[in-house]
Amino acid sequence: MNVPREISALSTHLRAGAKGFWIRSSGGLLFRFAVFILIIAATLLPTIIASLDKYRYAFVELEMTASQRGAARLFIDKGTGYLARNAVRVRIERSIIPETYRFGIPAEDVVGLRLEPSHKPGSVEIMGARVVNSNGGILQKLDLGKFKYLEGPIELTAHDGRVQIEIAEVEKPSSRIQISDDLKLAGLRQGMAAAILLWVAVVAAGAGILAGLLRQAFFTRLQKIAVGLTDWIETSGRVRRRSILLVISWCGAIGLLVILTVAVTQHNYFENHPYFYDPVTYSVRDISLYLEVKDQPRVAAAITEAMLNDRYPLRTIPLILTAPSVLAHPLGHMVTGGMVFLMLLVCFCWTVFKGSGSLLYGLAATALLAALPWHFDCRLGLGAYWLDTVSAYFLLLSALALINWERGGGALVGGRFCSVCLLFRLVALRFDRLCSFCLRASLCICDVKKNPRGRALPGINRSTAYCVRLYCRGPGYALSDRTLT
Amino acid sequence: MPYLIAHLHSNREYYSSFGYALGSTPIEAFNAIVKNICLIYLRLPMLLVLTILLVVQLLMFGGLPCRRFFAGAAGPLWVFIGILLCQVFVIRTVVAIHQFGYITLLFVFTCLSPVPWSNSVSKARKIAISLAVVLCSIFIGIGAAQENRRLSKNPSAEAKALKKLDLDLANGLLLEDPGVVWTAFFDEHWRMPAIVAFLIGGALPGHPTAQTFSVHEKYITTWYPDKTREEICEAVLQAVNAEVNIAVAPLETELINTLFNNDYSRAISLFMTTTLAADDNWEPAFRINTPHFGELVGYRNRRLERSRE
Asked: Which of A3, A33, A35, A271 would be A211's cystine partner, CB 3.0–4.6 Å?
């Protein structure tokens, strides 16, 4: 490859500069301190932002019922009067059960609040009013007895701790009531300043402690353990066996930790949130499947499922064969998803280890893969029953198998074959055709690299490659949109 | 191999029938992707850390690092670039962002791509780098687990209302005989109460074999091709009379106009609401008040009950 001289020179300069900087300063406590501040700050950023948000905004919460759907407006006085541009509009629903509506207000000096209960005629009843922060913590309770009529064709009556508002039937009702004129939210700013200082102190202290520890005895001990471990593996006559044992143990431990955490979180999520349309489709099908197969011989049921379900049989057949009752559990799909996740971790760890030549780096990189926030996401992650999540695991498994195959890792070819089967559970036919094209191109590259003289591929690779080629060429599009009817 | 081909055909039919979220212009798709990537970067500082690791990979490990890096990451890069190009030029999607999951994993691997480490990198430095990565993992993992734990325990008011609706509907269905078949004409909602009813009572309420309602016009026109709205309404009524034990519809017709964004769903819902309320063969079994759909009525099919007796 001919690289332009300027780019080559720049690359050498950058490499030398970076390397020099690292070597010069790697031993310095300040350098480590700065690095740890960056790492801790970047990783804690979501938590910091979430904790500061509660000081940036407040919410006026009104518990009320309405006889008509409409929109309520809250006018905010920031000391400059009640301006239309400072109004917050919220849609209200017709309901006889009290609903809680939230109006966001800034954490600036808000001195007064006025409410237009609805822009449509009808009645509105307010049962409770308060100012809360984003976590729902009450900042100030608003006294319903102090609600005052201001203007418009409305009638306001207060009784039994409630405020009843009747809006007369006129063409353009515009009604206002005063709900507070002595709001005191100034404490939010001081709270935010205190929280920022606290976070700065936490990050600095954490970085300082880590830098200090890693410089002194802790680092020395840790280094001894790690060096001993790598020496134990590398100098032994049974390097491969011990490496495999360590890789599987490590991946199993962190994988199970992630799966357990996700399961607990997802259980809480299902307790408090409604089920979502698409994932629940698969869950209901699994329950129906369980009710069908629970009294049948397992092998026969698995064969029937293999013939009927050509979309995600690898998620159901193992459960039919081993424990059909798991199909009926809302988190039962995590058994097969979790297995694929563990396979991915092991394959990933082995690939990075063999590629970099450092077992420790392989284990560390696997920990980073397992810690991705995506796995923990209640709506898209491992716990939610999306086929796409596990397909993504298979996609990466497929790529890793390609790389390992190139290096001669024949044991992983089977994994590649399975992943090719599931690779196509993507978004649309044209998409999977392009993906299969990319895969085919990768296969060809590997093929040429591995077999420069055009030797035949091993059997299973050959059949997979043939299958992909057949699909890329297109076996025909006879089926129309109406086939489903 | 026949199995694999059948599998591919099945997926192709599934998505080409419904055409979900496809067919925007390449510019719209490109804008959506750029926006989503920016949002992902803002929401997940982890990616920032990974990008730093990528740069470290490229600069730190001497001896033709770029060449080695791209040799190691060639496979993932192929698919990674393929997915991006395909989203912009072929699928042209703007809403199906869960595909970014595919990209994220490949991106992680590309960043951590196993470049052979130079011999000049000492053992102590290898250990230090590995420890830094482990520390990153611990912070990222704990942060993500905590954030989702908070989310899982603090539902919004809308989520609470929908959860309550599922529970109320499930309780209403559990009052009927086991094996009850039901359908809803206010939302695509039958599966959620069904699964709740199964978890509470152990019986899974069924759905009619004929397709009765959807909020997507494309689905309805696929189920009932070459039929006018009136003909579809009649076909749905026939199917419901023949198969359904409980049909849930809104009480008030004026609310229906605001619930759906297409004429087909509106027409079926309106027709079934007025027909079920006026038909003597359907009697109210339960009523549920909801903030979103107004008052819902579950009608029991007396004709089916009589035919069983």
From this structure: A33
